[in-house]
Fold this protein.
Amino acid sequence: MIILPRTYATVPKNLLIWAILMCGTALSSCTDKLKKAPNMSLNPNIKSETGFQASLNLENSFISTLSNESTPIYPDYYGGYYIGSDRKPVFLVVKGFENIAKLDIKKRVNSDYFSIETCSYSYNQLNAVRKVLREKFGDESQEAMIENLGWVGQYIDQQENCIYVMLERCLDSDIAEFKRKVCDSPLIKFKVDSVVVLPH
């Protein structure tokens, strides 16, 4: 849906038509790029939809129907997932749990259209570390430390099976200081990023 500002009535009709045509051209251009991209199957027979549905079924299966909470409860074998280059979902499973996980996932997604890849850490472990970081990052009393470290934020990278912490400089000294003052976990990797300043 396109929502026009309240002042749209004052815009000349020709200009409005031109803007709508440009949007259509842009969308058409994006579609052309998709058609030319290698390994991008647009086959209506639909492996991409099957993969998406399998991922959705798995996510939904983690939400308990026995409580009013919509917070997912992840099995200890589960490490996350991503969509592979063939559009098949790849479910990460903690090493040693492959056989149990494969049977459980197949039952949860009601399909065998998926792959299993082993990982080191469960999603529960990743979430536990992320919770610690969020509490620190959201603590107003830690603002000076956050600024000194150049700490921009953090997120779980499911494909890499880790938590990325973004630092403005990401020098060895910054990383050492972060590990000393915030969290020294093998689940954390560091990368350079910058603060996004939103316009007033």
Remarks:
- The longest helix spans residues 13-36.
- Residues 1-46 have pLDDT under 50 and may be disordered.
